[in-house]
Design a protein that fits this description.
Layout: H1 3-13, H2 33-45, H3 47-58, E1 67-72, E2 77-82, E3 85-86, H4 88-92, E4 105-110, E5 117-121, H5 122-138, E6 146-150, H6 155-167, E7 170-173, H7 180-190, E8 194-198, E9 200-203, E10 206-209, H8 211-218, E11 226-230, E12 244-246, H9 247-251, E13 265-266, E14 270-276, E15 284-289, H10 291-305, E16 312-315, H11 322-334, E17 338-342, H12 353-361, E18 365-368, H13 370-377, H14 382-385, E19 394-398, H15 404-414, E20 421-424, E21 458-461, E22 474-478, E23 488-489, H16 493-500, E24 512-516, E25 522-527, E26 531-534, E27 537-540, H17 541-549, E28 554-564, E29 568-577, H18 585-598, E30 607-610, H19 624-631, H20 648-660
Helix pairs in contact: 1-15, 2-3, 3-10, 5-6, 7-8, 10-11, 13-15
5'-O-[(S)-butoxy(hydroxy)phosphoryl]adenosine binds at residues 276, 322-323, 398-401, 423-428, 449, 510, 512, 524, 526-527, 533, 536-538.
């Protein structure tokens, strides 16, 4: 055991609660546990009063709302700030031109090459966003139209989102790591009119072509009239006459002005769609609206990250995920903060890249994912010591439960045993952080997301729908609406109700297992549905299975998660072949490549085990519980197997797994 592992083990063994350092709390937005408790109590007694005050303090409205909240979770239908009018790009840009922040950096962009840095002041960003909004307008984009965005982490990505918001067009960002097939299905689902993409993505010093994926997707996307291409790497690409155009040409055209009149939007007008995995094959288009979402993103960014005007704030997520939407863009820019945007990865050109950037820009607030911390942990402590991290004030974590060892490593080596870590639990659907410590205020327990934020009525229910007793595991639920909650699944109201409001009446069901300890702290255990969390990204087992079954050699497949030291969970797939197909290493690789092509690299199965049969109940349901145990080499107790149609299938699978190791 290394000295660091020793230290972590002994600190953890103490079962220690980390009290917040005294200094720091006095200037925090929420200053003490007393204040937190008061705010929480107030928000539960008078939710409308609580949220109206926040919406008024944080957001600039063209017209004030008539009614704070109207809802009926049994339908479900939720409306916040009914009758209110606003524009998000005005809130994120225009108002900062007159509040003293005009020349302040809004976005500091660090490209993958170290020397590639661009800084946008609020004025510059405003002008770029207006120009691009005018380009979109020229291409026929109107309020309510959908715009698909498939870009690497370049400034044009942020500009695209804000330009859509300016026109009232609905953005649908598709993560640049997804495949052509995944892009195609997302464009098709929302009938996007325009696609914004780039020639390539820079990754690990290489240019990986992106435009060919867009071309492939667009072959079967008749709704897309225009494809706007950002030049990033300068690689050779094909431009389709009449459909494709270059960003840099369009934005600098003579008739494109640097001002664009913003569209005054209804608080409940759709702002964006973001696809996420669920229990069934097809990803869900999670819908967020305007007024409530902005209020919530700003409110949580302010209280959880304690954003102040002089801070440099860095969230390492990609804008292709909700974390980027809420905590690179809308929350921080709404507050007039300085947000850092990074194009690269944590370990290129070396494992000290993050820390080098922290020193370079004197980052104050740093928000990342457990999978990144675990990957960097493997590289040892030395890379963290090469750079001066003393500017840091707050550390954050998101995406999956952070294991206590990774928490301690982060705390000791990055936080130098002084900085608070805010472990933030939330989802694409919640729009913003729901359960989290408040920095310099909440006593911390490594591995616990601690307490619900004011306004969030979180609880643990058991199967009967009663509140679980302390430390009894159950379903995490949210009992009251909050402004950032999703308003629907695009084009699919039944799925909205079924996926989120079916388990308990009038209650939001995030499908996470959790327990609450004797101090009321929440410990999130992970997904209860058929979703695998790989490096903080949700992948539906059904999506992976249908990709596998689409291959001609596959008769049947079952995918489960298995524990993985860096990714949290890895994908383990059981595959039954067609009788004519032969088991071979080549076929195994071919299947992995096939899934990669269908969904994207993150969905590539780590292990494929050949399965002559799958364990099924007599009614034909696959018993995943057993498959999960076999994948984890846990053969001791499979629980009740009496409903299995053919118990010998399990023995066969266990034998094969034991041989595989
Ligand atoms: C799922 C949501 C929210 C932005 C990133 C992921 C898991 C997320 C935590 C945390 C334990 C967490 C949950 C959740 N999760 N944060 N701090 N502790 N689990 O968004 O892709 O919508 O995934 O990620 O299982 O349901 P997402």
């Amino acid at each position: 055991m290394s000295a660091m592992e020793d230290k972590i083990t002994s600190l953890l063994a103490e079962g220690k609660v980390f009290q917040p350092p005294e200094e720091g709390s006095a200037q925090a937005w929420v200053k003490s546990m007393e204040e937190y408790k008061q705010a929480y109590a107030h928000s539960m007694e008078d939710p409308e009063g609580f949220w109206a005050k926040r919406a008024e303090e944080l957001v600039t409205w063209d017209k004030k709302w008539d009614k704070v909240l109207e809802y009926d979770l049994s339908i479900p239908e939720v409306k916040w700030f009914v009758g209110g009018k606003l524009n998000l790009s005005v809130n994120c840009l225009d108002r900062h031109l007159t509040d003293g922040r005009r020349n302040k950096a809004a976005i500091i962009w660090q490209g993958e090459p170290e020397e590639d840095v661009r800084v946008y002041t609020y004025q510059m960003l405003h002008d770029e966003v207006c120009r691009f909004a005018n380009v979109l307008k020229k291409k026929g984009v109107k309020k309510g139209d959908r715009v698909a965005i498939y870009l690497p982490m370049v400034p044009e990505l942020a500009i695209s989102l804000l330009a859509c918001a300016r026109l009232g067009a609905v953005h649908s960002v598709v993560f640049g790591g997804f495949s052509a097939v995944a892009l195609q299905s997302r464009i098709e689902d929302c009938h996007a009119k325009v696609l914004i993409t780039a020639d390539a993505v820079l990754r690990g010093g290489k240019a990986i072509p992106l435009k060919p994926n867009a071309d492939e997707a667009l072959e079967t996307c008749p709704s897309v009239e225009t494809c706007i291409v950002v030049r990033r790497a300068g690689n050779e690409i094909e431009m389709k006459e009449g459909r494709d155009c270059w960003w840099h040409r369009e934005i600098h055209a003579k008739d494109i002005s640097s001002y664009c009149e913003p569209e005054s939007m209804d608080a409940e007008d759709m702002l964006f769609i973001l696809y996420t995995s669920g229990s069934t094959g097809k990803p869900k288009g999670v819908v967020h609206t305007t007024g409530g979402y902005l209020t919530y993103a700003m409110h949580t960014a302010q209280w959880v990250f304690d954003l102040k005007d002089n801070d440099v704030y860095w969230c390492t997520a990609d804008l292709g995920w909700i974390t980027g939407h809420s905590y690179i863009l809308y929350g921080p820019l709404g507050l007039g903060a300085t947000a850092l945007m990074f194009e690269g990865v944590p370990n290129y050109p070396g494992p000290d890249r993050f820390w080098r950037i922290v020193e370079k820009f004197k980052v104050n607030i740093f928000y990342t994912a457990p999978t990144a911390i675990r990957a960097l942990m493997r590289e040892g402590v030395e890379p963290t010591q090469r750079w001066d991290l003393s500017s840091l004030r707050i550390l954050g974590s998101v995406g999956e439960p952070i294991n206590p060892e990774a928490w301690m490593w982060y705390f000791i080596n990055i936080g130098k045993e002084k900085l608070p870590i805010v472990d933030t639990w939330w989802q694409t659907e919640t729009g913003g952080i729901m359960i989290s410590a408040l920095p310099y205020v909440t006593p911390l327990k490594p591995g616990s997301a601690t307490l619900p934020l004011p306004g969030i009525d979180a609880a643990i229910y058991n199967e009967e729908g009663k509140e679980a007793s302390p430390n009894e595991g159950g379903h995490l639920v949210i009992r009251k609406p909050w402004p950032g909650m999703l308003r629907g699944v695009f084009g699919n109201p039944e799925r909205y109700k079924k996926a989120y409001f079916n388990r308990y009446p009038d209650t939001y069901d995030p499908e996470d297992g959790a327990r609450r300890d004797e101090d009321g702290y929440f410990w999130i255990m992970g997904r209860l549905d058929d979703v695998i969390n790989v490096s903080g990204h949700r992948l539906g087992t059904a999506e992976i299975e249908s990709a596998l079954v689409a291959h001609e050699a596959v008769a049947e497949a079952a995918a489960v998660g298995m524990p993985h030291p860096v990714k949290g969970q890895a994908i383990f797939a059981y595959v039954t072949l067609m009788s004519w197909a032969e088991e071979s290493e080549e076929l195994r690789n071919e299947l992995r490549q096939h899934v990669r092509k269908e969904i994207g690299p993150i969905a590539t199965p780590d292990v494929i085990q050949w399965a002559p049969g799958l364990p099924k109940t007599r009614s034909g349901k696959i018993m995943r519980r057993i498959l999960r145990k076999i994948a984890a080499n846990d053969f001791a107790d499979f629980g009740d197997t009496s409903t299995l149609a053919d118990p010998t299938v399990v023995e066969q699978l266990v034998d094969t797994k034991k041989q595989m190791g």
